[in-house]
What does this fold into?
Amino acid sequence: MATHAPLRVYADTSVFGGCFDEEFQEWSKKLMTEFETGRMTLVLSDLTLRELEEAPSKVLEVLEDIPLGKIEQVLIDDPVRELAHQYIAEGAVGKTYLTDARHIAISTIHKVDALVSWNFKHMVNLRRIRLYNAVNLKHGYCLLEIRSPREMLNEG
It folds into this structure.
C-alpha cells in the first residue's frame, strides 16, 4: 500500500483563535490534532507567528502541543510581497487588508496543499478565491485551495 506525504496546510491566525470560540472550536481543535499527530503538516509563517504573539497568551499556547517536527516554517520574502501587492492592485482585496493578501501570497509562493482560515470575508469566500486564483494564474503561479477547517476535515 502506497503511503502519502501529509498534506501541507497553512493555518492563519483565526484558526488558532478558533480553538477558544464556541462557533469554531470543535473544528479548530480537530485540525490541531491533525497537526499534532502528523496526519497534516502545519505550514507556519513569520506573519502568523507575529500575529499570535499579539493575541491572548492562551492562543499562542495552542502551538505548544504541536511537535516542532510537524511544523514547516516559511517567511515573507520579496516574491510574497510582490504577489500580495498584485492581489491588491488587481482588486482581489483592498489595500487595508494587506495582511490577508500576504497570508494568501505566502500560501501560494510556498505551494501549500491548502490554506485554512475562519476569515469568510476576505479569504474563505468563493468570489475572492476566484480573484486570488486569477491573479495567481496570470503571474504563473498555481491555483490555491482556500478552505475553512471544517471543510478541510470533511474532505478527509
Summary: The chain has one domain: 7-155. The chain is about 50% helix and 15% strand. The first strand starts at residue 7 and ends at 11.
